[in-house]
Design goal:
- The protein is of the alpha/beta class and 404 residues long.
- It folds into two domains: 323 residues, Vaccinia Virus protein VP39 (Rossmann fold, 3-Layer(aba) Sandwich), CATH 3.40.50; 61 residues, no CATH class.
- The strands form two sheets. An eight-stranded mixed sheet has the order 1-4-3-2-5-6-8-7, with helices on both faces.
- The N and C termini lie far apart (70 Å).
- GO terms for molecular function: S-adenosylmethionine-dependent methyltransferase activity.
- It holds the Pfam family Methyltransf_11.
- It comes from Ceratodon purpureus.
């Protein structure tokens, strides 16, 4: 009972800072509050450059809420892989935030894992939240909820309305690649975490839908003489580690995976993207697509990437990120100059031959150079290829090298 009151208090504070909240039993707890107080909030120092139209993305996700299937193969695969990383941690996370993207898949697949007692699911789309509440109520009725309590919150990933040091875990499955201020959003996640709290996230990487990008570019160049972005820009793998470090996370970890899905045609691919809420939301996009360009894009896609069975492949590059809120108990690198044993001493201890090397030997002591003598048999003069006899290789120059 006490933990439930604390969760309700957390949600009330969230509403006071610009959100809307419900519990999983579909009973409305708190009223809507205007988010106008966030209009002047500056997270990174430069909020004048917005790549994505967040209002449009909210509408796209509202539409996707009624197109989405109960179980999407792409969303479920990515989410399951993300949760597997949570199970590698030998500790529990009583209070967790489930942030955007495939948050309902996280809620559904997270049951009984990670020792989570209270899960707050948050998304920018009110219709997505309502859909998740309905599904959560169905799971509760069917007895699939276990002991985990579910709460729902409408809010923007760029402005987390949560108290500092209030969460043990922040998990986001494909919920951050539409955020304009990604370092700021991740920094807020770190602030909301308790010391030694865990941040787990996935987002689509820059190689996602590369086949569609190429096909759109070719079709536009052929018919329109120029290129307008039809697929949203995404972060590169090399940027993920920098993002975690910039946000203040300790022990950052990044890995990448690729999922290839085959569709009957480009039309089915676009419909699937719509049902996931993953269609283009770039501000500087063209508002309409010419019919001829769309048809030519589908034709180019089939010509360049089509399989023998008539299907077309679509690649989804998924970046997995993990980081911890800093804490004094965490492992840290030693201070420079604090070593008590040198690598040279270790090398001598494990390779006794190194201590007997002459000044002319190589720096490692394990690469010896021998000059051929008269009693050593010379190979044929016309052979320019290296000759070997086990561990010794003779180069064309006449110098012998022996690797010990």
């Amino acid at each position: 009972m006490g933990s439930s009151r604390r969760s309700l208090g957390l949600l009330r504070n969230a509403v006071a800072r610009g959100g809307r909240a419900w519990c999983s039993s579909s009973r409305r707890l708190l009223a809507s509050v205007s988010d106008s107080e966030f209009s002047g909030l500056d997270v990174t120092g430069d909020r004048n450059v917005d790549i994505f139209d967040r209002a449009l993305k909210s509408k796209q996700r509202d539409r996707a809420a009624w197109l989405m299937r109960d179980s999407d193969p792409v969303l479920d695969t990515v989410t399951e892989n993300l949760i597997d990383r949570l199970q590698d941690c030998k500790r529990t996370f009583p209070k967790a935030l489930n942030l955007g993207g495939a948050f309902d898949a996280v809620r559904r697949l997270l049951q009984g894992r990670g020792g989570i007692q209270e899960l707050i699911s948050m998304d920018i789309s009110e219709d997505m939240i309502r859909r998740s509440m309905i599904k959560a109520a169905e799971d509760e009725t069917a007895g699939r909820m276990g002991s985990m309590q579910n709460f729902h919150l409408v809010g923007d990933e760029e402005y987390l309305p949560l108290q500092p040091n209030s969460l043990d875990l922040v998990i986001s499955s494909l919920g951050l690649h539409w955020v304009n201020d990604l370092p700021g959003a991740m920094s807020q996640c770190r602030t909301a975490l308790k010391p030694d709290g865990l941040f787990l996230a996935t987002m689509f990487g820059g190689e996602t839908l590369r086949e569609l990008r190429i096909s759109c570019t070719v079709a536009q160049m052929e018919l329109e003489g120029g290129v307008s972005p039809r697929v949203s820009p995404l972060a590169q793998v090399r940027d993920a580690g920098n993002l975690l470090t910039r946000a203040g996370f300790a022990l950052p970890t990044v890995d990448v995976d690729e999922i290839t899905v085959r569709y009957p045609s480009a039309t089915e691919l676009i419909e699937h993207l719509r049902s996931m809420g993953e269609t283009n939301a770039v501000r500087e996009r063209m508002l309409t697509v010419k019919r001829d360009t769309a048809l030519r894009t589908a034709a180019v896609y089939q010509e360049m990437f089509g399989e023998s069975d008539g299907t077309i492949p679509a690649t989804y590059q998924v970046i997995y990120m993990a980081g911890w809120s800093p804490d004094v108990s965490q492992q840290r690198p030693k201070r420079r100059g604090s070593a008590t044993v040198s690598f040279d001493d270790l090398h001598k201890a494990f390779t006794p031959e190194a201590s007997k090397k002459s000044p002319d030997d190589g720096p490692g002591g394990n690469l010896k150079q021998e000059v051929p003598t008269e009693d050593k048999e010379e190979p044929g003069t016309g052979d320019s290829k290296p000759e070997t006899d086990g561990t010794t290789t003779r180069l064309p120059s006449g110098t012998w090298y022996k690797i010990e």
